[in-house]
Specification:
single chain; 778 residues; alpha/beta; OB fold (Dihydrolipoamide Acetyltransferase, E2P); 5 domains; eight-stranded mixed sheet; seven-stranded mixed sheet; 27 helices; 52% helix
Amino acid sequence: MYIFLAVLTGIILYFFTNSLIFITIFSAGLIFYLIKYKRNTNYLILPLIIISVFLNCKSRDYSLSDFNGEITGKVIYSNAEKSIVKTYDIKGEKFMTKVLIYGGLERGAVYNIRGKFTEAIPAMNEGNFNSKNNLKSQGIYLYGKIEKAEKIKDANFIDRIATKYSERASNFFEKYLDDRNSNLMQSLILADRFRLDDLDNERFQDLGISHLLAVSGLHIGILVAFLHFIFIKTTKNLKVTDLLVTLIIIFYLRIIGNPISGIRAFLFFVIYKFGFYLRKDLDNKDVFFLSLAAILYINPMAIYSISFLMSYAAIFGIIFVMPIIKSFIANRGVVTDSLIMTLSVIISIFPIVNYYFNGVSILVYPANLIIIPFYTIVIVLGFTMSFGILPSIIGSILNILLNSIYGLEEILLKFNFFNFEIKGFKLEYVFIYYIMLVMILNRHKIYEIIRPNIKIIEIYFAFMLIMFSIGFYKDINSLIYRQIYVGQGDAALISYKGRNYLIDVGGARFDNNIFEKYLKSTLDNLGIYKIDGIFISHYDEDHVGNLDKVYENYEINRIYAGHLPDVDFFNNINIDEINILHEGDRLKHHEKFYFDVLKAGNNGEDENDNSMVLMLSYGNIKILFTGDLSKNLEKDIKEDIDILKVSHHGSNTSTDDVFLENTSPKYAVISSGINNSYGHPHREVLESLEKYGIIYFDTSKVGEITFKIRDKVEIQKYLEKNKINYLYMLLNICILMYIARKNYELQGDLQKKWQRRRLFILWQGKIPNRKCNWIFKK
């Protein structure tokens, strides 16, 4: 437990301070405390662990710039769709990292690869999935496509065996199974999730059994049992059996790319075996914390991995939560125990699932109770088949079994009428959830500290409630303008007194996952269920392409536009539902909050010049939204404004000197996509903004931009958002714990002193026996 806490402290200190000087002072202070008060040299390993974890974080937390050029490295993992290359050099200079390559290469071979290499995109808005950190958890810092690949060294013997096993297993699955079943088995056994189509992935998610697609404890447990049965029968020696099983599991994990969930399960197995052979009495809790500490010590970036978080949260539920629930139920059977285990896991993983996967379906109970046992048989048969044991017979059995499971899943999916999701569940709420869960699990120990500190805790929480209420009051009485990053597109969210308005909704001309990737996750993170109005500036897809999806997922009161489209490209929206606005219209939603339409209607053949121009007024603050209007029409706008949403993503077709002189904005917002093919924003526009002293922000550089407007304008850039909120929360918890502990110790000291005083008086014979009995009873 102490080792895990030391590892966690090193990670927390890195992310909150990132200061080598601070960690040195902190470690020196900790060493002094341990020597003076603990008087046990064994504890001195803890500061060393903290420092080493801090330095490990520092060495792994880096960024690489995009480039066109060459890399040289060894392929450490490969399938038909992608390869992971461990580099020796980048652009001719020695540098070791991992690069994700889209394309199959020979596992174990060394290649010189030419291509375009790009850094993964981080979360650009609050609530977005962070692809950059997720790849970083695997040690991957760039991804790219192959233009030319030259093999300069063949794979070694072990890698050739690994490749041979993967190829043979794939051939067996493809030859003896239906296409759909073959793809599923390659995903289950070889961890090749690229084989599954979107519908199958969605089916697993809806059923709450996505964990099957990650090689985890179930897979490793089955493989260990399978191998142990074979080797113990043949060798008749437990030590030899355990050694062979361990080597094969290591080899298998290497074949499938060493997934964190698989490593976690393997560490559980190894620690148990070490405890057995060293005659150490290790319980499940010891194994949990030791394996957790080992993974985070080796790779602190694993905390970014959803697979890691889900895996350990699920095991936490089984080890810590399930016994508590069981203690309240007297008569239990197999079914009851299965339901309790499922409930325990759901309680533990809920905040992660809710934050990343939009809630938990009610189907998770019957699916895990009914379907998981069938998939256990499928995995056993799949492993057997992958080794080439009776592939045709097992293939026939698997086809029948998997087709039956599909039918059963379809029946269950018909009852998928309830999905429990808490919108507005921010990342800090995940931490609070687990803090509360740990407190509940340790309620008896914590009660001992809380009881003498109840007044301090009441005062503290009253103070925090007042501070939270003040913050909430300020927010609800402020107008908040968010320019949401939606790639190369436009989407602005205006919020005031519980009302929410969107000005454009983003989209894409080709494969459009902009809504799911950026817009929906942001709106859900903010807890938005209802949108009071959507304003369509014009009908280019990068402004309105997501309208159908927004309409399907949220309650929409009104849709406004300056004109109707020439072609009806909406699937779910009747054009009659669109309210047409005209130049000079005013939509007043509050005494000091209203929209003025400055331009609307068909102004020319160019759809950009048909853009509706809106001016939002809030008290004395004015915000101008110009769509993609060109400079030819911008020159007609003569309004003093405070914030300008720059037209056409910063293209040089708009925003010239005449327009800026006519409007005199203090701030400008540019909505553009990272590495967009148009080169937006153009240098000419940026120079014009700089010339007039306008402070500008580009979503491709700083992510979501938020203006909080009340008595003054507060600006927050998402990618530059500091960690003060999390640090403040951590400091508050530490202060509360310190004060409570000190008060607890003080109460204990006073009680001991008073007891000693009473015994002294008693010894002097100054208290009658009747009183003495009363004192002892007290």
